[in-house]
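the two lines:
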Amino acid sequence: EVQLVQSASVVKNPGTTVKISCKVSGSAFTAYYLHWVQQAPGKGLQWVGLVDPEDGQRMYAENFQGRVTITADTSSDTAYMELSSLGSEDTAVYFCATALSVRSFRYFRHWGQGTLVTVSS
Amino acid sequence: IQLTQSPSFLSTSVGDRVTITCRASQGIGSYLAWYQQKPGKAPRLLIYDASTLQSGVPSRFSGSGSGTEFTLTITSLQPEDLATYYCQQLNSYSISFGQGTRLEI
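prediction for all of em together
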């Protein structure tokens, strides 16, 4: 059974950086692209970016370009999302998700449980 | 690419046939998916490639369309279908979601 387990909720001060993790089990970590998705309270889904764990290639949504870094650690089958210069608008649940098919970025099949990031002073 | 779903909210009854529309601001071929999200949960993939039913998803869900106009249909709505539904385009690496359609039963 494929499982994506994310790190716990966190509270951060404005202007700081947050790094959250997503550990993948039950599937070959390097075979599937991994995505991050943001959901602000009561709002819809917004794609943040992706990483190809096989070669580390990353793509980011324009809205997050310059503030987000997504990485993959193949030694621990864990992906990370780091978001800097946090503002109140970054308060949201962040989900990780793996793609549907091997070596394709398309469609999000397996999802983590979500990590709530609260930005507050 | 902008995706516009309609309606944004739908009041329905058990047994109803429900149709949700998703329009893309430019052509995306068939690179469209539909997700279901229940409160406090992660989204669930229902349909991909516009019309392919994901394994394990009940057959009352179906998708159609290509280019810029797509539909998700739920025949004979069930109480467990209470959720918000999102379309998603993956024509390129610039992935986007529709704003969501909330179903109330």
